[in-house]
């Protein structure tokens, strides 16, 4: 039996996008302009929203301006780096072999974006009775900053789509929940001295270690006491410290230390309360530090805030995705997405896209052609099925 494959145009678009280096530290503008030029040539109106340095941009395009309702097809354009990974092919070559498309971002999530763009001409020709929106963002991999800017721009412009499909890799099974990701940088300021004069110093590394141990205790408490949510690999919220650095020499009491930590919170859990436990402990540690040097203490910076996501099984976006996928099956995913941001903006939202997160972020990342073909069929069905679910009354939150 022959395995399904995507159309040549759809595959070509997926390959074209993989070949752009859009690692989050790089600009995504060449990729954005490639898509924008194609859409402009088809007469599709679009708007760009920029980061502060104008090195990156979101693209928001609308097929059917002024039509009622509105379905958003969402995807992020940035990728994680491949530094130090043992690739057996060029990460930007977009090589097709053995029934798969290889390359950084092929699964996460340029395959999805490429297929959406490839479908544009057909949707325009079909003259859909509802608006269809593309929302392609920057900096999802480092905190979802682009999508926040994009959603704020929509609100300020008076645009109010009703449904959203986020095309992250779920093997084309609609995902109805994921944890949030809330990440902070803690900067500890101490007072340096020769290590033989420790009472005259404030050891930033030791102060950080006390707070790191407290974060570990919070994680232990969550594991021991938080109610479980079945369906997740780890069915409770977690805490982790993943980066720490400080000190300059063995015989110098360090005056600076920095560490990064995160909470991955279940839908319905209170990530802000978890963070308050950290800042309250820091406040309790500071008096002894300031008694030696008033300038010492802790400073916190939020570096990622992706809210948790949970959709009800009967809401319109979920039912639409199930109809398009041809299955009543749903799943939960462990990774964070922009779905929670769209949901908080008032859109009925679901996560569904080609490929597996097991291949994303890995050496020799790939998406199978069979998955791309299933996604293409899913997208082609929007014209037939989306109108019904866009007409459904919104569910109360």
How does this structure look, described?
- The chain has 397 residues and is α+β, with helices and mostly antiparallel strands.
- It has helices at residues 8-18, 29-41, 106-118, 120-126, 145-157, 204-225, 271-292, 316-325, 339-344, 369-380, 382-390; strands at residues 46-50, 57-63, 71-76, 96-97, 100-102, 132-137, 163-166, 175-178, 181-189, 193-194, 238-246, 252-253, 256-264, 297-306, 309-310, 331-333, 348-351, 366-368.
- Helix content is 35%, strand content 23%.
- Strands 1-2-6-3-7-17 form a six-stranded mixed β-sheet, with helices on both faces. The protein has a four-stranded antiparallel β-sheet with strand order 11-13-9-14, with helices on one face.
- It is elongated, with a radius of gyration of 23 Å.
Q: Alpha-carbon distance between the termini?
A: 45 Å
Number of helices: 11
- The unreliable regions are none
Cα shape: elongated
Strand order of the largest sheet: 1-2-6-3-7-17
Secondary-structure-based class equals alpha+beta
Whole-angstrom Rg:
23 Å
- Kindly state the mean pLDDT as a whole number? 95
Strand content: 15-25%
Main β sheet profile? 6 strands, mixed
Order of helices and strands: HHEEEEEHHEHEEEEHEEEHEEHEHEEHH
Using DSSP, what is the number of strands? 18
What descriptive keywords fit this protein?
35% helix; alpha+beta; 397 residues; 18 strands
Brief account:
The chain has 397 residues and is α+β, with helices and mostly antiparallel strands.
Please render the helix and strand layout as text.
Layout: H1 8-18, H2 29-41, E1 46-50, E2 57-63, E3 71-76, E4 96-97, E5 100-102, H3 106-118, H4 120-126, E6 132-137, H5 145-157, E7 163-166, E8 175-178, E9 181-189, E10 193-194, H6 204-225, E11 238-246, E12 252-253, E13 256-264, H7 271-292, E14 297-306, E15 309-310, H8 316-325, E16 331-333, H9 339-344, E17 348-351, E18 366-368, H10 369-380, H11 382-390
Parallel strand pairs: 3-6, 3-7, 7-17, 8-16
Antiparallel strand pairs: 1-2, 2-6, 4-5, 5-18, 8-15, 9-13, 9-14, 10-12, 11-13
């Amino acid at each position: 039996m022959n395995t399904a494959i995507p159309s040549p145009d759809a595959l070509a678009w997926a390959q074209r996008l993989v070949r752009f280096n859009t690692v989050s530290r790089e600009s995504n503008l060449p990729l954005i302009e490639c898509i924008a030029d194609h859409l402009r040539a088809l007469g599709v109106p679009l708007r760009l929203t920029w980061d502060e340095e104008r090195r990156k941009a979101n693209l928001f395009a609308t097929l059917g301006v002024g039509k009622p309702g509105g379905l958003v097809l969402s995807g992020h354009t940035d990728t994680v780096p491949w530094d130090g990974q043992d690739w057996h092919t060029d990460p930007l070559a977009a090589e097709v072999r053995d029934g798969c498309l290889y390359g950084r971002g092929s699964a996460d999530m340029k395959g999805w974006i490429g297929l959406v763009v490839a479908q544009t001409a057909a949707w325009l020709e079909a003259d859909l009775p509802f608006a269809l929106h593309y929302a392609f963002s920057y900096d999802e991999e480092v905190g979802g900053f682009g999508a926040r800017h994009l959603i704020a721009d929509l609100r300020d412009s008076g645009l109010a789509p009703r449904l959203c499909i986020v095309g992250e890799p779920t093997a084309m099974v609609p995902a109805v929940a994921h944890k949030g990701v809330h990440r902070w940088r803690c900067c500890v300021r101490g007072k340096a001295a020769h290590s033989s004069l420790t009472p005259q110093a404030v050891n930033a590394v030791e102060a950080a270690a006390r707070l790191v141990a407290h974060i570990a205790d919070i994680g232990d408490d969550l594991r021991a006491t938080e109610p479980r949510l079945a369906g997740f690999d780890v069915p409770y919220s977690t805490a982790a410290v993943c980066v720490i650095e400080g000190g300059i020499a063995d015989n110098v009491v360090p005056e600076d230390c920095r560490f990064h930590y995160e909470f991955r919170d279940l839908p319905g859990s209170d990530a802000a309360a978890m963070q308050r436990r950290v800042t309250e402990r820091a406040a309790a540690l500071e008096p002894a530090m300031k008694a030696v040097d008033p300038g010492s203490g802790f400073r916190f910076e939020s570096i990622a805030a992706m809210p948790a996501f949970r959709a009800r099984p009967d809401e319109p976006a979920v039912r639409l995705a199930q109809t398009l996928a041809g299955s009543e099956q749903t799943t939960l995913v462990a990774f964070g997405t922009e779905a929670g941001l769209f949901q908080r903006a008032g859109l009925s939202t679901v996560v569904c896209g080609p490929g597996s997160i097991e291949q994303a972020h890995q050496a020799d990342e790939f998406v199978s052609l069979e998955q791309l073909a299933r996604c293409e069929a899913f997208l082609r069905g929007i014209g037939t099925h989306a109108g019904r679910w866009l007409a459904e009354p919104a569910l109360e939150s």
